[in-house]
Design brief:
Layout: E1 13-16, H1 20-31, E2 37-40, E3 53-56, H2 62-69, E4 74-77, H3 84-92, H4 101-108, H5 110-119, E5 127-130, H6 134-143, E6 147-151, E7 161-164, H7 179-188, E8 193-197, E9 203-211, E10 217-219, E11 223-228, E12 231-237, H8 244-260, E13 265-274, E14 277-284, H9 294-297, H10 302-310, E15 324-331, H11 341-351, E16 356-359, E17 369-377, H12 380-396
Parallel strand pairs: 1-2, 1-4, 2-3
Antiparallel strand pairs: 5-8, 6-7, 6-8, 9-10, 9-11, 9-13, 11-12, 12-15, 13-14, 15-17, 16-17
Subunit structure: Homodimer.
Pathway: Purine metabolism; IMP biosynthesis via de novo pathway; 5-amino-1-(5-phospho-D-ribosyl)imidazole-4-carboxylate from 5-amino-1-(5-phospho-D-ribosyl)imidazole (N5-CAIR route): step 1/2
Catalytic activity: 5-amino-1-(5-phospho-beta-D-ribosyl)imidazole + hydrogencarbonate + ATP = 5-carboxyamino-1-(5-phospho-D-ribosyl)imidazole + ADP + phosphate + 2 H(+)
Amino acid sequence: MSTSAPRRDFPVVGMVGGGQLARMTHQAAIGLGQSLRVLAVKPDEPAPLVAPDVVPGGADDLAALEALAVGCDAVTFDHEGVPQEHLRALVAKGVPVRPHPDALQHAQDKLVMRRRLSAMGLPVPAFAEITAPEQVDAFAAEHGWPVVLKAARGGYDGRGVWFLRAADPAEARSAGAPHGDLVRELLAAGTPLLVEEAVAMRRELAAQVARSPFGQAAAWPVVETVQEAGQCVEVLAPAPDLSEERALEAQSLALRIAQELDVTGLLAVELFETDAGLVINELAMRPHNSGHWTIEGARTSQFEQHLRAVLDYPLGTTTMTAPVVVMANVLGADATPEMSVDERIHHLFARFPDVKVHLYGKGERPLRKVGHVNVLGTDLAECRRKAVLAAHWLSTAQWDDGWSVHEGAPAGVPTGTGARR
């Protein structure tokens, strides 16, 4: 047996974070002949369960980040929670961090993002930094109640966001109670805050693009994201009843942001559609929940495209593989079902053999994203019905439409295409 080091024919990409985004990026890497290296805190996180090349450690550990970067052709992220000083230390050592910290800070800090996009003349909500409780009331006096208080860093899936309404004058205390107490508590804990006007919107959209260091860019069709309690539950691709003009406007916004901020890799721009036009809500510079539909629904998935982009490969085509794709998140139920996940999958496939299932290897707990399903077809209503039923079944082991795993559907309920189990 030869004792020489094996020849390295393929690049190595290091991903900070071992969650489901890293897991699905690893799955895309396999097809490219690669094995993604991941930085993970625990061995039972979604990515370490399937990826062989794992560096133990957290994103706040510079030594672990440096160990991850050794021999990597690019270092990228499945979350934004990495200290800027650590990223800049890697860059100073010549590590190709993609996106660069100069770009990533706009996805890490909402105040940095709002100020930059506003300076670019892009549509953002009215906003202000908050350093004292009375500033919330002053902002509301100018822009009206309700207002949205946000943690400038660290919030996601509705966390770090508070909708504030005017206090009842009969109950008011100083500095706009009861929200004054909340603001004081957050500031005392060291939470940087901003306040924004509450945007009157029709719905939420997402425009996702990819950009390479060479400057090549590609955009997927604009999608509608359906939110419940601040968390995405469905994605409809393409966004139904969206005019071509509005879709091009959303894609152009995302492409401009990617270029001017010098983003490399994926960029997701979350948008509010209002009567007056589009308003930018959030940015993410990584694969994103709004792009999970692309695994089966686009010629190039967001995960493969992210790898192509950070390695400066030519980008893949983003055309859809079906007229309609619906993604539905599988969320942990209030009470974990007695039926095993494997048995739930058996029953799901017996009823809907065309539903594509992606589970993340996570333990179930209420509202935790433990997977998603994709449904492709030609009719939005039918795809959506099937995706929502499938996701709810995987969450709860209950069919929302009364279907019985032994007797089939009640009278008047569509049977779908699956055989009865």
